[in-house]
Amino acid sequence: PFALLLNFASEKGMGERLHIVSLGQGQGDNAKRLIDHGKKTGDWVILQNCHLSKSFMPELEKQIANFSSSLAHINPSFRLWLTSMPSEFFPIPVLQNSIKLTNENPTGLRANMIRCYKEIKDMDFFEEGEAFPECTKENAYHKLLYGLCFFHSIIAERKKFGPLGWNNKYEFNDTDLSVGTQWLQMFLQENSEIPWEALRYVIGQIASGGPGLS
């Protein structure tokens, strides 16, 4: 999960020395340049979505194989992070010589709720005095945030049923929750009343409904 990696980099003092490339068409040369730069300077490099760049995988395998060469001069602070969905063409030697991390939702509604709240960093988003006609914005935010976490936990937990009820199986993750939280904060901040219809449509239909229907 990208957010967890960003937080980890900040904790290690590498937040300003983290270089990110979303692999895709035409990004191979940029990725190679950043890897060479990171080896010299000790910066961290993240290559996202390796499963979308089949043509670059042989080159990536070659780059990583060279790390163990006696002629390679690599700064000990350098780290190369790769993110990918399961893929048949991902290089096996890279997997064998890497530390592999997986992230899965816990089992059970209660465990998912606890995990959701652990991922939320800014509970006191609104300042004192900001209010809707019926309540303070802070109070509305906390109650709606609980509803959002409950909703996210339900759709994450129902993965045990596979694609039943959806057009396809989709693994809802922390990014989906983070996007929903950002929408919630934005809508509450920019409106003088709670925009119920907008919240239901954007979070329920677009952010969460889209992946299960496409």
Task: Describe it.
With 214 residues, the chain is mainly alpha-helical. The chain has a three-stranded parallel β-sheet, with helices on one face. Helix 6 runs antiparallel to helix 7. It contains nine helices and three strands; from the N terminus they run αβαβαβαααααα. The longest helix has 21 residues, at 137-157. The radius of gyration is 21 Å and the shape is elongated. It starts with a helix and ends with a helix.
List keywords for this structure.
214 residues; mainly alpha; three-stranded parallel β-sheet; elongated
**Number of distinct beta strands:** 3
What is the string of helix and strand elements? Answer: HEHEHEHHHHHH
Task: Give the C-alpha Rg.
Answer: 21 Å
Cα end-to-end separation: 22 Å
Q: Assess the beta-strand content as a share of residues.
A: 5-15%
Shape: elongated
| Structural class by secondary-structure content | mainly alpha
Q: Count the helices. How many?
A: 9
**Strand arrangement, major sheet:** 1-2-3
Average predicted local confidence, pLDDT? 84
Helix content: 40-55%
The largest sheet, given as strand count, sense and whether it forms a barrel, is: 3 strands, parallel
Residue stretches low in confidence (pLDDT < 50, at least 5 long) are none
